């Protein structure tokens, strides 16, 4: 597993993890990720999400502690929280990195970076083909302050977890033109398509939430195992 280093810019790190299972809510989910050879988990702190976990609940801290003990990277997913609140939650729960998945301002990420937190920034993109110029406009400011990019489908007010895929040829074209930029592929990835997505885009880091659930919001160990196996090839 690739560990984050505090104070390090991760914008140009090739990969911060190979596989991340986002939106885990139970200890059995965490154990399934570790047992399957995964690298990271995401804890979702967006109250409107079906995958929400309460940061004030001792069970959430216990979940994070278990993940850390098992050697998994712990990423907190936030939507439009203040930098102060995110730092407070990250410190109390025990996170390794912060993921911004809302409409946060650049200054919010800059404050977190200045405080030494590794930051993943969700870059929300259309489902259809897009030009490299669109990526440059949306991503460049975040790269400048040292954020790692997470490419996802724009899900509107849901802020992720749509189950819809990006236009992989567009991602591949952008990635080929920007080989020094580190990024993670998200958006509709599941056991049935993650290998195809990796081959099509050249992604070395992938992230899923809904793709390993059955029913929605409930992680499925068999799907976690299949996703990670397919991603690792």
From TrEMBL:
Pfam families: PRAI. The keyword DNA-binding does not apply. GO terms for molecular function: phosphoribosylanthranilate isomerase activity. It is an enzyme of class 5 (isomerase). It catalyses: N-(5-phospho-beta-D-ribosyl)anthranilate = 1-(2-carboxyphenylamino)-1-deoxy-D-ribulose 5-phosphate. Its EC number is 5.3.1.24. Gene3D superfamilies: Aldolase class I. Pathway: Amino-acid biosynthesis; L-tryptophan biosynthesis; L-tryptophan from chorismate: step 3/5. It comes from the Bacteria. GO terms for biological process: L-tryptophan biosynthetic process. Keywords: Amino-acid biosynthesis, Aromatic amino acid biosynthesis, Isomerase, Tryptophan biosynthesis. Residues 20-229 form the N-(5'phosphoribosyl) anthranilate isomerase (PRAI) domain. HAMAP family: PRAI. Belongs to the TrpF family. This is N-(5'-phosphoribosyl)anthranilate isomerase.
